[in-house]
Amino acid sequence: MSDAKQTAFMQAYTDCHGPFLRYCSAIAYGRMDVQDLVQDVLLSAYQQFDRIERKDQLLHYLVRAARNRAASAWRLGRRSADLCERQAARLQERGATPEQLLDVQLLYKALDRLPEQQREALVLFEVSGLSMAEIAVIQNCAEGAVKTRVSRARAALRGRLEGRSELPAAAILHVLILLLP
Question: Which of 23, 42, 14, 11 has its CA nearest to residue 129?
């Protein structure tokens, strides 16, 4: 492990940390341990760091790697009750009320039913705080397509959560963002 490589990686990763951690927390909920996902992706990225041509786009690499790692868990389509309980306990430690926990659970069920590209665009925009342009690079599409995906995802969430939660979808997303690491 060279000190120069480690320093360069840490400099590139510093700005990515918050958005990447929030993205992983959102996609892993109930399916895998967030810390395992983050550590697995970071280890892989560090090992491949010399091969990454655009170091300024490390976040894009990390998001794609996390998405690929989580894809197998999504394909299983099952949530682990044990993981959900542990993650709910973490949220309670951060001050979540029982009502907020229920809202978060409803949100994840609704997110699961979105098409993958819409779900990812929404999470990257609303939870990770990336710009439409950054998401377009990650999703390899036009910025207008990202705007459409986010808009359709928001509309679908509103429709699915209407009457099932006291909070609108945007408020639930806000609660989720506040509770994520």
Answer: 23
Helices 34-48 and 3-14, packing angle to 10 deg: 130
- The token pair at 96 is 């979540």
With a cut of 50, list the residues of the chain below it in pLDDT.
178-179
- pLDDT for 69: 82
Residues 6+ apart with CB under 8 A from 107: 157, 161, 165, 169, 172, 173, 176
- For the chain, first and last CA: distance in Å? 28
Cα angle 66, 42, 83 (rounded to 5 degrees) comes to 55
> Under a CB-based contact definition with an 8 Å cutoff, are residues 22 and 129 in contact?
yes
**pLDDT for residue 161:** 74
Whether the Cβ atoms of residue 63 and residue 79 lie closer than 8 Å to each other: no
Q: What is the pLDDT of residue 179?
A: 47
3-state secondary structure of 181: coil
**What tokens does 37 get?**
């996902």
Q: What angle do CA 162, 164, 166 make, to 5 degrees?
A: 80
- Tens digits of per-residue pLDDT, 90-130? 777 877 777 777 777 777 778 878 898 998 898 888 888 88
